[in-house]
Amino acid sequence: MVEIKTDAALAAMREAGRVVARVLAAAREAARVGVSLRELDEAARAVLDAAGARSPFLGYRPSFAPTPFPAVICTSVNDAVVHGIPTGYRLRDGDLVSVDCGAELDGWTGDAAISFIVGTARPADLRLVEATRRALDAGIAAATVGNRIGDISHAIGTVASEARCGMPGDFGGHGIGRRMHEDPHVPNQGRPGRGYRLRHGLALAIEPMLMAGGHGGYRTATDGWTLHTEDGSRAAHFEHTVAVTDEGPRILTAL
């Protein structure tokens, strides 16, 4: 069932979203050559604790997962698309890192992700990151009252296709509010004019995941969580929690 939020609920989600934005900023600041992924998770935990917020990632166990998720952020490096577990891996020059984070504050949730390059960037990685950011921007721009979920999906998919990037077809965005994952599902590819009609008060996590190899094949790592590109190509991931409002899309997970 799709829950339409009141303006007061969206304001509360905005506060949770600010915490998410601060977590991502802290992780990005800490990400340097030689720093471990666990250290990024520690930096994220410190921000959540200071805000009095809870992580919806920590202990999360969907049906596909063999074990509960053991961290407060996902850290996906190079050919990892999403759901990477922070480990002792130490970042190297040129690594492409995606960090995904959620925060629950006063019963409301925010969810967002960023991708960036540590140290010296490959031109191809810069193009991939920029294309993924443009796909997110296009999806957000389509999140207007009267449009449908398919309009968001089509906007994202068009950018990905123009950039000759693939996307994992089984994964996409989602409704969000009292819980991290709510209805409706928001595919990253689709036909315009199809699906649930967008209304004032609908909150969505919009999250394109682009794969440089040009197709959507992926494999799941032995940890049961991390998704890797099937061909070993690099991937990027951006996400914002967005409110559909009569005044236009409102990003809830910005600083």
Provide structural commentary:
The protein has 255 residues and is an alpha+beta fold. Helix content is 28%, strand content 23%. The chain has helices at residues 7-30, 37-51, 123-141, 149-162; strands spanning 73-77, 80-82, 96-105, 108-117, 173-175, 182-186, 203-206, 209-211, 218-220, 227-229, 235-237, 240-243, 250-251. A 5-stranded antiparallel sheet has the order 6-5-7-12-13. A 3-stranded antiparallel sheet has the order 1-3-4. A 3-stranded antiparallel sheet has the order 2-10-9, with no helix packed on it. Strand 5 and strand 6 (182-186) form a beta hairpin. The longest helix is centred in the first third of the chain and has 24 residues, at 7-30. The chain is globular. The two termini are 30 Å apart. The model has no long low-confidence stretch (mean pLDDT 98).
Index terms:
13 strands; alpha+beta; 23% strand; 255 residues; five-stranded antiparallel sheet
Layout of helices and strands:
Layout (H helix, E strand, L loop, with lengths): L6 H24 L6 H15 L21 E5 L2 E3 L13 E10 L2 E10 L5 H19 L7 H14 L10 E3 L6 E5 L16 E4 L2 E3 L6 E3 L6 E3 L5 E3 L2 E4 L6 E2 L4
Antiparallel strand pairs: 1-3, 2-10, 3-4, 5-6, 5-7, 7-12, 8-11, 9-10, 12-13
Helix pairs in contact: 1-2, 3-4
